[in-house]
Amino acid sequence: AHTKVDVVEVVDSTVNALWRRATFTTITTLVTIIALASIGVQSLTEFAVPIIVGLVCGVYSTMLIAPALWGTLIRAQQNKGQKKSNANFAKSKSKKTHVNKVSA
After folding, report:
1. 5: part of which helix (H) or strand (E)?
2. pLDDT score recorded for residue 91
3. Are the CB atoms for 37 and 45 separated by under 8 Å?
4. Which helix (H) or strand (E) holds 40?
5. What is the pTM for the complete model shown?
6. Are 14 and 67 in contact (CB under 8 A)?
């Protein structure tokens, strides 16, 4: 059977599942890049800084921005569908009332 689940619950459970894996992956990648930057030549150091900035920005957007944005878009879509069904119900109700007034 199909059950309706709250969008906030889905976003929370998804972020909680992703948090640990993303943290370990980010730390592992940062350690490797920092090691390359500190041991390597000047060109590697210059290359490592933008990689670190990109990694931090990517983790930030994946963990904090994307779930909130997705949840907002889904809620807006659900509200749009709710308003549409309410408008259709009101339209059908007014038609029935109009028909009853004419026939009475």
Report:
1. none
2. 65
3. yes
4. none
5. 0.60
6. yes
Amino acid at 24: F
| 4 residue type, one letter | K
Please give the distance of CA 41 from its chain centroid, rounded to a whole number.
39
Q: Are 7 and 71 in contact (CB under 8 A)?
A: yes
- Alpha carbon distance 63, 52 (integer Å): 17
The structure tokens listed for 86 are 């309410």
Q: In Å, how far are 45, 46, 58, 89 from 49, measured between CA atoms?
A: 7, 6, 14, 58
pLDDT value at 1 more than 60: no
pLDDT digits (tens, 9 = 90+) for 35-75: 988 888 888 888 898 999 999 999 888 888 888 888 888 88
Asked whether residue 3 carries a pLDDT value surpassing 70, the answer given is: no
Question: Got the DSSP string for 41-75?
Answer: -HHHHHHHHHHHHHHHHHHHIIIIIHHHHHHHHHH
Q: Is 4 helix (H, G, I), strand (E, B) or coil?
A: coil
| Length of the chain measured in residues | 104
